[in-house]
Amino acid sequence: MIHFYRIPVGILLCLATSYIYAEDDLQRTIYDSNGFKDITFFPLGPLQNVSHGKGQWHPASGSAVPGEIVEFDASPFQRGLRRFQTANQPIDVDYLDFPPVASATLTISFDARVSTTDSRTLDIFLLRPGHTHTTAQASVLIWGYEPGHLSYFDGQYHRLAPINTEWNHYEIRHNLSENTFDLIVNAETIGSGLTWRNRFAPDTEFGRLRIGSIRGNAGEYADITNLRITSSPTPPAINISAPLAPGGLVSPSDGFQFQIIDEKPESIHAVEIMLNDNDVSENVLKSVELDSINFVYLDLEPDSAYKASITASNDFGTSTRDISFYTYTNKVDGYRGIWFTLGQMSGVYGDKYSAGSAFAWPHTLTPMAVYAPEVDKTFFVYGGVTDTKERYLLIMASYYDHANHRVPQPTIVRDQLGVDDPHDNPSLTIDPDGYIWVFIAGRGRARPGQIFRSTAPYSIEEFELMDSREQTYSQIWTVPEKGFFHLLTKYTHGRELYWETSRDGNTWSEQNKLAGFGGHYQVSRLHNKKVGTAFNYHPGGNVDRRTNLYYMETSDFGDTWSTIDGQSLETPLNELQNAALITDYETQGKNVYILKLLFDSAGHPAILYLTSSGFAPGPDNAPRSWKIARWDGGKWITSHITDSDHNYDVGSFYINEDHWALIAPALTGPQPYHTGGEVGLWISTDQGANWKLDKQVTENSPFNHSYLRRPHNPAEPFYCLWADGDSSQLSISRLFFTNSDGSKLYMLPYTMDTELAEPSLLDPPVPPKP
Asked: How deeply is 470 buried, as exposed, middle or buried, from its count of CB atoms within 10 A (0-12, 13-18, 19+)?
C-alpha cells in the first residue's frame, strides 16, 4: 500500500531512494543480469519468481515449463538461462518486467546460442508493461522459424541473417518513438529501421521482455546470458493512474492520481500541476519510490469537469501531460449498457460475439440478480457506461422495487478505468444479514478481480472493497448455515475451474482446483445445501473447439464431490474421459456452449446448452440447437428445444413443477447471424421432453436482444432481464425485463432526471428506435 505525505516539492531530493548506477550520462542501465551469477537470486534449476535489481522475473507457471539456470561447460560464460523446447500448449515462456521507458532509445543486449539452426528455438519480444497479448508486442525476433536464419515479424516474417550454434552477442536497439529497431550481431549492424509487430503512439511505455519460443521440437534449447537493458536519458515519464483514459470518470474520494517515473527520481527538479488553470502543486500528496514519485490530489468537487496539465523536468528535458476528466458522486443518471466486440471478425457475419453486453458471458457469471423477499426488491448488477462516446466499463448495482414499480439511479460499484471488456462483469449474492456482495471478475492474470460489500443491509448506496486478487468468471452462492461457496476460473493452464469457501467473506479457504484438462467453461446452481456444476472442455486449450458435457456436485460445502449417481470423484479432474462425463460431443464434431443449470422439484439437475458445428458465425455452422440434458433419477435424457442462428443466442431457463420455460433470443432479429435476435418464450409441460413456441416477447426491434439473465429466485414481473444492441456495429445498449409469461415487456429508463423512476411498459412490445 502506498502511504502519502504532504511534502514540499523542494525537498523531494533528500527523500528519494539512492541507487548506484554503473553507466555514464549518455546511457542508463535499467536492468543487468550480471551473467546470472548471483546464486541467491539465480540458484541452479528452474528459474524463480524473483525480484533482482530493478527487474522482476515471472517464469512460466502451471503446466508450462520455466527456463532453467545452468552452468556452461567449455564455454566463455559461466552461467545463464536455458530455455528448452517442450512443444507445450500453452507455450513455455518467461517474462522479465523492468521499469517502463518511453520516448527513448532502449537497448536489449545479451549473448546467446542455440542447439540447432533447423527449427525454432528462441523468441525475444518487447512488450508493454504487464501485458502478454499479441496486441502489446513491439519488436519480435525469432531464431529458426526459417531454418538456418534469424527473422523478425511485423505482420509477416522477414529473413534477416544466417545463424549458427556458436555464442553470438546481440544488441536490439529500439527507437521507441519511431516504433523501429536496429539489430547488431557481434558489433555488426545486420538490420536498421526494422518495423514492429504493432504500431504505438510515440509516448507509449514499454517495460516487459518475453523470452521463449513456440512450435519448436522437444528437447532443443537456447542459452542466454549477460542480459542487460539500457536506455538513453529522457525527460520524466508521466503516467496517469486515475483515470487511465481521457474523458474518464474519477471518484472524488479516490482523487486524481498520477506518477512521475524516472530511473533517478532525485534528478527531477520541477513539478507543476495545473487543474482548471489553477496551480495546485503545493496541495498534492506525494510519496517517493525507487523509480517514481506518486501524486494524488484529493480536493475534487463531485459532478465537476476538470482539465489537468502536469509538467515535470529533469536534467534532460521537460515532459507535459494534459488530460480531461470529470467526477461523480457514485451514481449514473440512467441505465446504459456497454457495447463490446471481441474483434474476431468473420466477414459479413461480424464478430464471434459483438453485442450489447451489460449482462454478457452469462454462462460464466452467476447470479447477476437476486430477489430479496425481506424488502421485496430484486438486486442486480451489470456492466454499464456513462455514454457511448466514453465506452468503458462501469460495474453497476441497482434494484427493482416490486411494491412501487420503481428503480433508482444505478450506483457505480467500481470504475474499471479504461477497460471496455465486459469479461470483467460482476455477479452478486446477499448474505444472511442482508449485505450485498459484488464479485467482479478480472481478466485472467492481466487484471485482478475484486470483492465489494455494501456498507448497509439491502442498500446500494455505498460499497467497500474487501479484497483484490486473481479471480475470473465468479459464480457465488450463499449456502444456508455454511457461508459463501465461490466457483471461479484461473488461467493456470488455459481456463481451469476452482472453488473456495468462506464463513464470512473475510477469510477464505484455499482455492482448490476442480477440473483442469484442457480448459473449461462452467455454469453452477445452489439447491438447498447442494452446489452443482456443469461444464465443457477445450481441446488443446482452444475455446473455439469447446465440446463435451460434464456434471458434478457437492452436498458438504466442497469436502467431497460426486457424480449425479453418487460415485465419488477425486479432484481435480484431470482426464478427458471421467465419471462426470454426460455426453461425448467431441466424437460427434460438435461445439458445446453451456448456458444454465437448474434443479427440478426432486433436486435433479437439468442443463441448458447449445450445440453447433463450429465457432464462426454464419449459416455454415448451423444448426445451432438448444438442448436440455436432465437426470430423471436413473439416467440422463437429452431433448431438443429449438434452433437459432448464433452460438451466443443466450437465454434464461425456468422450472416450476411441471411447467418448464425458456425465454431466449432464438428468433431471427434485425441483425441475422449475429449475436442475439428477437426474444421468444418456449414452454414444456412434460419435463422438457417436448417444447413449443408460446409467445414472441419482442418484435420489430431495431437491435438484436442478447444475453438474457435469470434472477436466482425470480419474482414477478422482474423475471428475465437483458440488453439490446446493434450486433453488427457500435451502438447504444438499453436494458429490458419481462414477466414470467412474456406478456409484459419493460424498458429501464435510459436517462433519468430524478433519483427514482418507473420502467416503461412497451405495448405493443416494440422497442423504440434510438
From this structure: middle
Q: Is the dihedral of CA 459, 464, 466, 471 positive or negative?
A: positive
Assign 349 a pLDDT band (cuts: 50, 70, 90). confident
pLDDT at 368 over 50: yes
Q: What cell was used for 647?
A: 452460438
Q: Sign of dihedral through CA atoms 35, 40, 41, 44?
A: positive
Cβ–Cβ < 8 Å for 97, 107: no
DSSP code, position 583: E
Is residue 120 over pLDDT 50? Answer: yes
Give the integer Cα–Cα distance in Å for 635 and 625: 22
- Residues 6 or more apart whose CB falls under 8 angstroms from that of 459 comprise 436
327's grid cell: 467526477
Question: Above 70 in pLDDT, residue 138?
Answer: yes
Q: Give the sign of the dihedral formed by CA 601, CA 596, CA 518, CA 611.
A: positive
pLDDT in the model for residue 302: 76
pTM: 0.66
Alpha-carbon distance of 379 to 360, in angstroms, equals: 17
> Which residues neighbour 514 within 8 Å (Cβ) at sequence distance 6 or greater?
487, 496, 497, 498, 499, 533, 552, 561, 571, 572, 573
Spell 532-554 as b/e; 16+ CB within 10 A means b: bbbbbbbbebebebbbbbbbbbb
Q: How far apart are the first and last CA of the chain?
A: 45
Amino acid, single-letter form, for residue 283: N
Distance from C-alpha of 47 to C-alpha of 70, rounded to nearest angstrom? 10
Distance CA 34, CA 80 (A): 10
Residues constituting the chain: 770
The DSSP call for residue 300 is P
Contact 762, 702 (CB under 8 A): no
The backbone torsions φ and ψ at residue 651, rounded to the nearest 5 degrees and listed phi first, read -125, 180
> 182-191, 290-299, 352-361, 373-382: which range is least confident on average?
352-361
CB 365 within 8 A of CB 474: yes
Q: What is the pLDDT of residues 559-582, one digit of tens each?
A: 999 999 999 999 999 999 999 999
Query: CA-CA distances (angstroms) from residue 157 to 191, 200, 579?
Result: 14, 20, 46
pLDDT value at residue 316: 77
CA distance 710 to 699: 21
Radius of gyration, CA atoms only, the chain: 28
Is residue 582 left, alpha or beta, with left meaning phi > 0 and alpha meaning psi from -120 to 50?
alpha
What is d(CA 460, CA 455) in angstroms, rounded to the nearest whole number? Answer: 8
C-alpha cell at 691: 417444447
256-261 sheet: strands from edge to edge: 237-242, 256-261, 292-297, 285-288
What mean pLDDT, rounded, does the chain reach? 88
pLDDT of residue 12: 27
Q: For the stretch 147-156, what's the b/e string if a residue is b when 16 or more beta carbons lie within 10 angstroms of its beta carbon? A: eebbbbbbee
3-state DSSP of 404-420: CCEEECCEEEEECCCCC
The C-alpha cell 544466417 sits at 162
Interatomic CA distance for residues 442 and 390, integer angstroms:
21
3-state secondary structure of 250: strand
Q: What are phi and psi of 730, to 5 degrees?
A: -55, 135
Place of cell 534449447: 221
Contact predicate 493/541, CB 8 Å: yes
Grouping H, G, I as helix, E, B as strand and the rest as coil, residue 620 is helix
Handedness of CA 70, 71, 75, 76 (dihedral sign): positive
What domains sit in the chain, N to C, each tagged with a CATH number?
27-231 (2.60.120.200), 235-327 (2.60.40.1220), 339-762 (2.130.10.10)
Q: Residue 476: left (phi > 0), alpha (psi -120 to 50), or beta? A: beta
**pLDDT value at residue 73:** 85
Asked whether 183 and 160 are in contact (CB, 8 A), the reply is: yes
Which DSSP symbol is given to 283?
G
The answer on pLDDT for 625 being more than 50 is yes
